[in-house]
């Protein structure tokens, strides 16, 4: 697997977090979030950039990368693109060789694009289950879809899942093949983001450990 950021617990921001994203993101990172993506489909590129800068400053020294959704932001650690966004090769060219580039995949056919995979740091199964936070996706892939994507990727890249993942559903999804889970409401909607992140991180870590034990048995 290509070296890269720790993607075990990946927080995607949402306008529902409030004007100051630090209120949710900082305690969530303290609780165990390992990667943050700034996503606000209604925001302008300048507004996304301002949010990225705010979080980069707030998380300085934590080692947690801050990515931008859709937009290439110079101050970000990388970018995540969806199926309707720029091709991963374009994002890689714009961000440079050391940036994190993520790509949402909703079909196995997308994984036949060797150039796209070569440009990515990770791929994201989207959505795993039904979710109200994204209305621009195809039908949920479910656990069978997660397993199929992980098998097709074959360890070349980390596979992250997003969509309907929480303390109940994250464990089975990781056991099915995810290397990390991306969440919005499971942490951001909780009145105590730090505690919510800590609980979910324990679930993910336990599932990863169980999968490693199964693989070595």
Provide the descriptors you would attach to this structure in a database record.
8 helices; single chain; eight-stranded parallel barrel; alpha/beta; TIM Barrel; 8 strands; 16% strand; 217 residues; globular
Structural notes for this entry:
There is one protein chain. The chain has 217 residues and is of the alpha/beta class. It has a single domain (9-216), classed as TIM Barrel, CATH 3.20.20. It is built from eight helices and eight strands; from the N terminus they run E-H-E-H-E-E-H-E-H-E-H-E-H-E-H-H. The protein has an eight-stranded parallel β-barrel with strand order 1-2-3-4-5-6-7-8, surrounded by six helices. Helix 2 links the parallel strand 2 and strand 3 (66-69). Helix 1 packs parallel to helix 8. It is globular, with a radius of gyration of 16 Å. The model has no long low-confidence stretch (mean pLDDT 94).
Describe the structure concisely for a colleague.
This protein has 217 residues and is α/β, with parallel strands linked by helices. The protein contains 8 helices and 8 strands; from the N terminus they run βαβαββαβαβαβαβαα.
């Amino acid at each position: 697997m290509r070296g890269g950021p720790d993607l075990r617990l990946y927080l995607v921001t949402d306008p529902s977090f409030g004007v100051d994203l630090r209120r949710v993101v900082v305690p969530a990172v303290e609780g165990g979030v390992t990667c943050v993506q700034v996503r606000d489909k209604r925001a302008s590129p300048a507004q996304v950039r301002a949010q990225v800068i705010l979080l980069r400053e707030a998380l300085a020294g934590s080692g947690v990368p801050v990515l931008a959704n859709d937009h290439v932001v110079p101050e970000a650690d990388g970018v995540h693109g969806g199926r309707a966004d720029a091709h991963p090769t374009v994002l890689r060219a714009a961000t440079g060789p050391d940036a994190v580039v993520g790509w949402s995949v909703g079909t196995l056919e997308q994984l036949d694009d060797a150039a796209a995979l070569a440009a990515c740091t990770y791929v994201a199964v989207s959505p795993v289950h039904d979710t109200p936070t994204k209305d621009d996706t195809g039908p949920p892939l479910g656990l069978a879809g997660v397993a199929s994507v992980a098998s097709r990727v074959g360890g070349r890249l980390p596979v992250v899942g997003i969509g309907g993942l929480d303390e109940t559903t994250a464990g089975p999804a990781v056991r099915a093949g995810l290397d990390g889970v991306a969440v919005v409401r499971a942490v951001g909607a909780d009145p105590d983001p730090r505690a919510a992140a800590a609980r979910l991180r324990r679930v993910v870590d336990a599932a990863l450990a169980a999968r490693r034990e199964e693989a070595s048995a």
